[in-house]
Design a protein that fits this description.
With 206 residues, the chain is mainly beta. It has a domain of 99 residues: Immunoglobulin-like (Sandwich). The strands form 4 sheets. Strands 2, 5, 6, 9, 10 and 11 form a 6-stranded mixed sheet that branches.
Amino acid sequence: MSTPRQPQPRAGSGESRAAQPPAPAMALPHGLGLLLLLLLGGPGAAITIPPEYGAHDFLQPPELTEEPPEQLVVFPSDDIVLKCAATGNPPVQYQWTREDQPFIPEEHGGVSVLPGSGTLVINATLAGRLQGRFRCFASNALGTAVSPEANVIAENTPQWPKEKVTPVEVEEGDPVVLPCDPPESAVPPKIYWLNSGECPNPTAPH
């Protein structure tokens, strides 16, 4: 006597198929797994730097922290001070140009560089001879930071032209015009008027 056959489920009949074992998980390379962990975030995503590895060990290209002004007007009693300082690792080296040509402070008596920076100091006696366009360069193995160009102008002490001052007579209540022609200068002048027994009264620059 033959054994009766068990009915087989048909596709689409709604009966579940026999459970299949899950596919084995694909193992990720160690480096790729760490990268995904950092990208996805989570508590384990923080990077801890060993305490013996200080910030001074990081390489850094030069970055200017002080720059010379775009224009500097100096008078006979003033030294020329052009500031230039930068951070970087390895430590930066400073160079200057004047009128787009290399400017070496050691070649000029009365010119010095402040220790620990690139700030250039030019004695007042040389201001007239060394006025012009200056630029600072801060460099290390990772690159060079360039300052804006500084235009240095050396002027003589402003002097009023000789003129004969005559009294001005007007009728009471009439307007009066008092001329004031200060000497020309690269720096806009500040005009002050004095009245008898009164404090100076500043006016807008002309």
